[in-house]
Design a protein that fits this description.
The structure is a single chain. It is built from 1 helix and 14 strands, in the order ββαββββββββββββ. With 222 residues, it is mainly beta. The protein has a domain of 135 residues: Galactose-binding domain-like (Jelly Rolls, Sandwich), CATH 2.60.120.260. The strands form 3 sheets. Strands 3, 5, 8, 10, 11 and 13 form a 6-stranded mixed sheet that branches. The protein is elongated, with a radius of gyration of 22 Å.
């Protein structure tokens, strides 16, 4: 899933995702080269754009001081998930091995072990992992490797649901800023007892619209 983020001082304040517009609009916006424009606005109301000329707000001769310009790219795409019904709930389940998703992206992680993490997770986003085998006795714990560079006051819940995104969570934990989008920590949570094989959904809920968490991997315990 591709997206365009608008950030100020490292804090993302707006995101436009591929699935929010039609395919033609997205292709017209992204499938071409890009360039950076550095502009000093001289006049009020962009007078020339409206058929006018310089006005009293036009003050020529001002300089622009630029510290630096940086352009970054990140890798995308997920890994091929294991066959349905062949996921071990007690092993490490890589977040990027999802079977389905909404509103997410993958990127190279700096966490130990390398690989990729799933990022840009905000309110309403979700990940699906089919055929997770909990066996017996029941699993009662959940933990996930997460990172967050969310602005102050922005946090949310990482929730675990079984078999349908519409089912109530069996457990969750809250996460806010961890020190950066690649500053990782493992967060545990208790869950309701689970046995057997289920499709697992990680859902993400927040009272704010901004991205609030990245996920590298998760696992369950007894």
């Amino acid at each position: 899933m591709e997206e365009i983020r608008f950030s100020l001082d490292g804090n993302t304040f707006h995101t436009v995702r591929e699935n929010q517009v039609d395919a033609t609009t997205w292709s017209n916006a992204t499938d071409h080269g890009f360039f950076v424009i550095l502009n000093v606005a001289m006049g009020g109301g962009f007078p020339d754009a409206f058929g006018g000329g310089p006005d009293a707000g036009t003050q020529p001769g001002h300089s622009m001081l630029v510290d630096y310009v940086q352009v970054l790219t990140s890798g995308g795409g997920g890994t091929t998930p294991p066959p349905t019904g062949n996921r071990d709930a007690y092993g490490t389940i890589q977040a990027e091995s999802f079977d389905g998703q909404s509103g997410t992206m993958t990127e190279t992680t700096s966490d130990s072990g390398g690989g990729q993490n799933v990022g840009a997770l905000a309110n309403g986003d979700w990940l699906q992992f089919k055929g997770v085998n909990f066996g017996s006795p029941a699993a009662r714990q959940f933990s996930a490797r997460v990172a967050s560079g969310a602005p102050a006051g922005v946090s949310g819940l990482v929730e675990v649901r079984l078999d349908s995104r519409g089912n109530a969570p069996i457990g969750s934990f809250s996460v806010g800023n961890t020190g950066g989008w690649q500053s990782w920590r493992t967060v545990p949570a208790n869950i309701a007892s689970v046995t057997g094989t289920h499709d697992v959904y990680l859902t993400f809920t927040s009272g704010q619209p901004q991205d609030f968490v990245n996920v590298n991997w998760f696992t369950f315990g007894r």
